[in-house]
Amino acid sequence: TWNSALETNAQTHADKCIFSHSSDAYRSNVGEFSYAGENIYASSGTSLNVTIIVDDWYSEKSDYNYVTNTCTKVCGHYTQVVWANSTAIGCGVQFCPVLASSSMNNSYFVVCQYGP
Q1: Mind telling me which residue stretches traverse the membrane in this protein (predicted)?
Q2: Of 6, 11, 15, which Cα lies nearest the Cα of 100?
């Protein structure tokens, strides 16, 4: 379910144009949620394709071990997308002429936050 508190929080972070996750403190007590999970993504170009973004996060599935509930590499984006307990999402996007903490310029910075 779309959640406006998560959306506002995600958009505020995206507006900063700094390619990094927001702090744990920033994601604490967001609306009805005591803590929000977060995925971030940067995309260069003149348009944004949400399907490609979600597919990229989902592609980490191959690094997830269901038996041990661990990752062989990075798979936190995947687990956040499919987490059974996540019931709400809110996303923000900002076009950043300069995306700090990255080598990308003229990029879209996407932030999605999940609750719980």
Answers
A1: none
A2: 15
Spatial separation of the C-alpha atoms in residues 14 and 17, rounded to whole Å = 6
Phi, psi of 85 (to 5 degrees): -80, -15
Q: Kindly list the domain boundaries of the chain, sorted by start residue.
A: 1-7+33-91+103-116
What torsion do the CA atoms of 9, 11, 17, 22 make, to the nearest 10 degrees?
20
CA 75 vs. chain centroid, Å, equals 13
Nearest to 18 by CA among 38, 37, 36, 40: 40
Contact (Cβ atoms closer than 8 angstroms) between residue 15 and residue 109: no
pLDDT tens figures, 30-57: 999 999 999 999 998 778 888 888 888 8
